[in-house]
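Annual report, structural modelling task.

Input specification for the adenosine-5'-diphosphate complex:
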Amino acid sequence: NDHATTAAEPFRPAGLGDAEGPGTVHIRKLVKSFGPHTVLRDINIDIASGEVCVLIGPSGSGKSTVLRCIDGLEQIDSGVLKVNGEHLGYAEEATHYRPLPRAELRRQRTQIGMVFQSFNLFPNMTALENITVGQTLIKRTSKSNAKKRAKELLAQVGLEGHDAHYPAQLSGGQQQRVAIARSLAMDPQVMLFDEPTSALDPELVGDVLDVIKQLADDGMTMLVTTHEMGFAREVADSLLFMADGYIVERGDPREVLASPREPRTQQFLKKVL
Ligand code: ADP
Ligand code: MG
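The model returned the following structure:
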């Protein structure tokens, strides 16, 4: 079961509360299976507006699946999943689902930004085009406004003057910063980062983490999976450790990293710290 809900702090354990409205995530009893394989058994997470939540856990524990559910890329089996105060993809709670029309799910999804480990930029488009395409096609922004915004975002991620570069002409760290800018161009209220620096050479990690940290300082609500424990300690409001389909431990990142209570967390941290 979700140990943390029964553990020490009875009033407000980290990552649990009653997050509601724009820029929030609210997950209760989330269950998700792939065929016979139940990956998420009972996930409970709240992220309040402006909070940074870091999710850690062994490979295969379901971290990406949690993010993909929150981004509407996976349908959940049961539970409550509200993003920005709305039941994601459904008209009511999952116990009596009524799927929303695709256009409505698409509208909800534009308010959620997702950044993947593998960047996933459009290889045949320049950095600028990667950032304008969603604005013009989905948000119906005019070409000139989209371009203006793209240039601002490139500057924000430290890539001023890289408009005309194709992904193949950029380093991994630069590509990931373009991917972040592309995501931000949709004006999301929640940002999801799935191991955003795991594919990068060590010397390129810092620039990407700095961009994410700046976003956090600016008040973006975010959920980040990462193996960068320094980042978790410095930036996260709450740290969640997941294993076997549950959030096994949660708390202030400094406390969890310094003195994990659960043996599972202790074993995991011994390997990564
Ligand atoms: P993590 O991100 O923590 O490494 P994942 O969420 O990627 O874990 O995967 C959790 C489990 O779900 C793994 O056993 C993985 O093989 C399985 N899984 C993930 N996506 C799918 C899928 N589309 N179909 C079948 N199994 C999947
Ligand atoms: Mg993953």
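Residues 63-64, 194-195 surround magnesium ion (ligand 2) (CB under 6 Å).
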